[in-house]
Structure formats: structure tokens, C-alpha cells
Amino acid sequence: MARLTLALLLLLLLAGPPAARPAPPTCYSRMLGLSREITGDFQLLQAAEPAEACVRYLPHLYLDIHNYCVLAKLHDFVASPQCWKVAQVDTLKDKVRKLYTIMNSFCRRDLVFLSDDCNALEYPIPVTTSPPDHQR
User: Fold this and answer.
1) Phi and psi of 67, rounded to 5°?
2) What is the separation of C-alpha 24 from the centre of its chain, rounded to a whole number of angstroms?
3) Contact present, 64 and 80 (Cβ < 8 Å)
4) Of 40, 42, 46, 55, which has the fewest Cβ atoms less than 10 A away?
5) Pseudo-torsion of CA 117, 94, 91, 22, nearest 10°?
6) Cα 73–76–80 angle (5° rounding)?
7) What distance lies between CA 134 and its chain's CA centroid?
8) What does pTM read for this prediction?
């Protein structure tokens, strides 16, 4: 019996400590995740056949939380009068408002802006996944 108890104790020690809960998201990870979610939702909204014509006239919403102009972009999107009372747009504007509040209040000290190129938020550089032809 003592050998069995010793074997179980050894097995528990080798198994390691119980799994810890993951760390809560940081301000930065929360901002980054929410900005990606908003950009994806906006692209889906633009790609889908809009039930309302006003969706075509919404300001472009490509977000880069490292660009200083993103704060003005978020503010302008929420303040845009297009598509009032359209459920998908209202939900998107709520997310944008939340990101703006997080960036402007809670996580202000965590922000590091690497650019102030406002045009980059209007016409983002496409992401390429393959090298140019001359590098293949």
C-alpha cells in the first residue's frame, strides 16, 4: 500500500502543477483584437449585398492602432450620419465607440504611434502573401 501511495505521489509530482488560468488581455491586445474585429466586420458589411444603400456611403474603416490618425478616423465613423437605424451598422458603431473609449481613456498610456499618415487609413497597402515574381 505504501508503494502504491508513493507511486501516486510521484506521478502527481511528475504531472506538474495544475494548469493556471490564462492571463487577462492587456490593453494593447484588447485594442489590437478589437481593431481587427472592427476592420473585418466592416469589410464583410461592404462585401455583402447591402440591404440599405447607405452602407456604400459609410467612411472607409481600415484601422491601424499604431497610426495617430486612427483616433480621428474612429470619431468620424461614429459621428457619420449615414445608416441610422440599420442594425449591422449600429452594432459596428458600438464597437468603434468602445475602441475609441479604450484608446482615449483606459489605455492611453499604452499607445505607441508609429505613423501619422492619414491616407494609409483611407487606402491601406494590400498585404501580399507571396514574393514578387523576380524573387521566386
Assistant:
1) -105, 125
2) 16
3) no
4) 40
5) 90
6) 140
7) 34
8) 0.69
